[in-house]
Amino acid sequence: MLVKWIRLTVVDRRGFERGQRKWAGLLGEPGFRGQGGGWSRGRPGVAHLVAFWESRAFYDSFMARSHDRLAASQAGTYKDAQVRLFEHEFDVKVGFRPSFGEVDVLRLAHCQVHQDRVDHFMLMQEKVWNPAMAGSPGMLRGMLGRAPGEEFLVLSMWQSAAERGKYRPERVERLALRAQIAADVRAIAGDVVQLEPSWTV
């Protein structure tokens, strides 16, 4: 499965949200599995979108045919768009599915890993982080995606912001030490996204 992550700064909120509804047109696209997104809880005006495709071939076909027509209605409503593509590597918890139905909050962690630490990083995701997150109340499901090179996206879906708050900083610090995250990762950028149900396709 291919995962597309878009982060952008919205300059015309009303126009952007109006245009966002046009993405319902994705529903007829071969290989399209789901899309959702919302507003950053820490950075005013920053929006995140995550889309799932069965494969890179289906996604490339969509980009060549229909993308520009759907995107046209949002022209001029945002700036600084950053787009990243990741291949699904494994689930966080079990049975990941690209569905946003009961999800209130998305947590995104974008990790750039030292080349010689990739294997260790992935092992720690599986052996340390996965069990800890799977045991957190309110964490519904998640996944680890990988881009060419040493770039990873850890995406988790939460039932509510209150539930995510139970995933406490001191616990995260303990896990980070155990996983040797400082040795593995050369850069990490995270965000917490309040889902906008009207953006879900």
In short:
This protein has helices at 13-20, 56-65, 67-71, 118-134, 161-164, 169-178, 181-184; strands at residues 2-10, 32-40, 46-53, 78-92, 105-113, 139-147, 151-158, 185-195.
Structure characterization notes:
29% of the residues lie in helices and 39% in strands. It has seven helices and eight strands. It is globular and about 45 Å long. The chain has 201 residues and is an alpha+beta fold. It has an eight-stranded antiparallel barrel. The mean pLDDT is 91. Strand 2 (32-40) and strand 3 form a beta hairpin.
> Helical region count?
7
Instruction: Summarize the amount of helix as a percent range.
Output: 25-40%
Low-pLDDT runs of 5+ residues are none
* Rg: 17 Å
Query: Kindly state the mean pLDDT as a whole number?
Result: 91
Q: Judging from the principal axes of the Cα atoms, what is the shape?
A: globular
The description of the largest β-sheet is:
8 strands, antiparallel, barrel
How far is the N terminus from the C terminus?
17 Å
Alpha-beta content class: alpha+beta
Spatial strand order of the main sheet: 1-3-2-8-5-7-6-4
Strand content: 35-45%
Number of E-type strands: 8
